[in-house]
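Protein Record: Sequence and Backbone Structure Tokens
======================================================

Structure line: whole-number tokens from a learned vocabulary of local backbone shapes, matched to residues.

Purpose: to set a sequence beside its fold so the mapping can be learned.

___
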Amino acid sequence: MKRSIYDILARRYDELNGAVDYPAIAAYVTEGCRRFGRPAKSVLDLCCGTGELALLLAGEGLDVTALDRSAEMLSVAREKARRSAAGETVLFLCQDMRSFELYGTVDAVVSTLDSLNHLASPSELARVFALVCNYLEYGGIFCFDLNTRRKYERVYGQNDYILETDGLYCGWQNFYDKKSGRAEFALSVFREREDGCYVREDAVQRERCFSARTVKRTLAAAGLEFCGVFDAYTFDPPAPESERVCYFARRPRND
């Protein structure tokens, strides 16, 4: 069975994504909770990857649960946690977002870097939203981002890319079907061994473009109240050129 691209690249993931401003994302999530609900004391980082955001939120005093289905990504996250003063407070869980279980409810759920685009269909999106609602406190906030249709059509499209850094080469071929909204990425990764030889691993990653209409309808069906959608990590309205947008939703208060 082939490994996922996240298992393959886990040890180099942060290096390849060095442009991501995690402190800004943490501040954005905190501000969004304040604007649309209440300050959060506990949070679930859904698809936490290597734990950068989870550890930042823990450093701010939040009770953090961090969940991902990639054991390799979580291994990196746990290593970071052991080196972090706040890391020992984070609960890491290796679970699939489509079927996760928590030990209790949380004040907020956050999912970043287009993790939900990995869901294959509106029915899978509905399943995740229902689970989020189930584990959110009444009045709790759900913050997540999604890639836009523009990104799939203009940036990914049928384009090919090369990612290269010391000892690592990744060839990336994109295929996007406008009618279905499905994207498929074929990746070949060459990693240098200690003896100077390179090892090749191949992976296929699939994503799905979800329209704002689908997202809003699915949130409502799950019992979540739509609060707003914004250009990524701002509180500005989405623009025609937006490649990523952020949604906020709330579990209605039980009163």
Residues 29 and 143 are 7 Å apart (CA to CA). The two ends are 50 Å apart (CA to CA).
